[in-house]
Amino acid sequence: MENHNLKKIAETYKSDKIEHGYIEIYESYFHKLKEDNLIILELGIADGKSLLTWSDYFKNSKIVGIDIHKINLDEKNLNRSNIDIHQGSQSDEKFISEIISKYKEFDIIIDDGSHLSKDVKKSFQLLFPALKNKGLYIVEDIQTSYNHFFGGNPFDLKYSNSHMNFFKHLTDSINYQEIANPFYIKKKYDSQILNISFHHNIVFLKKGVNDRVSKEVINHSYEDMKFKEKTNRSGNNLRYFLKYKILFKTYTLFLFLVNLIKKIVLLRF
Ligand SMILES: C[S@@+](CC[C@H](N)C(=O)[O-])C[C@H]1O[C@@H](n2cnc3c(N)ncnc32)[C@H](O)[C@@H]1O
């Protein structure tokens, strides 16, 4: 990989993002942005090593850090013109809305705070609206999703309420237009996510308008799309009406009901 110096800077400040193996991954996303004028928010300051790293790397950007504990700027050498810090919890709605009122929008948000599933999900819910179009939302140390001492669940990986599963489910929002369920109800993040990348213990999500119309379904219906295609081509409406509007639709309704009953019985919503 090309050397863009993030590693050198992180070494200077002894950032533990090196040991975690995050620096090369960060560099691959950040090197194109390093000269830009950005607003970067990091949840979790501790000794300020990452804030100092970002402050050097993103020279033209504002680095905002928040931490639940009081951080002494002078003690941690954080007294720099491009660093702002605030005390408060990443999952406190009032505090986060004050942060959003002050900075309006962020280009990059990094969650390196409590790593508790409930906090990670809550912060995402509070901060996603303040992430700019094409902005990046990054969650570090996602391994806590596999640890019940952090609110994760190592015993039911597929259906737990962990933050890893939260992000896994968001991948469906990238393809929501393709879901061939005529009863599908558009979800909160559908059409707002361009991509999600999972690396070892770290997730990168890119916000953006993603509402490309499906080539397979019309309004989530495969049978309606097929009916339209076939009748446009041949004009034999009755035959295709019986096939797609009656037979295929009945089959889709049957599968919908089977899955609905399954979800009710297993309490999966
Ligand atoms: C892993 S450290 C942050 C390290 C820092 N980002 C770095 O790379 O140098 C986690 C920090 O999150 C803070 N923290 C814990 N719970 C929090 C919460 N609910 N809201 C905000 N910060 C929290 C802790 O006080 C701690 O300083």
Describe it for me?
The chain is an alpha/beta fold. The protein has two domains: 202 residues, Rossmann fold (3-Layer(aba) Sandwich), CATH 3.40.50.150; 44 residues. 37% of the residues lie in helices and 16% in strands. It has eight helices and seven strands. The chain has a seven-stranded mixed sheet, with helices on both faces. Helix 1 runs antiparallel to helix 3 and helix 7 packs antiparallel against helix 8. The longest helix has 29 residues. The mean pLDDT is 96. The site of S-adenosylmethionine has 21 residues, from strand 1, helix 3 and strand 2.
Radius of gyration: 23 Å
The helical percent reads 25-40%
CATH homologous superfamily annotation of the largest domain? Vaccinia Virus protein VP39
| Strand segment count | 7
Give the strand order, joined by hyphens, for the main sheet.
3-2-1-4-5-7-6
The structure class reads alpha/beta
Essential attributes:
single chain, alpha/beta, Rossmann fold, 7-stranded mixed sheet, binds S-adenosylmethionine
Quick structural overview:
It contains eight helices and seven strands. The protein has about 270 residues and is α/β, with parallel strands linked by helices.
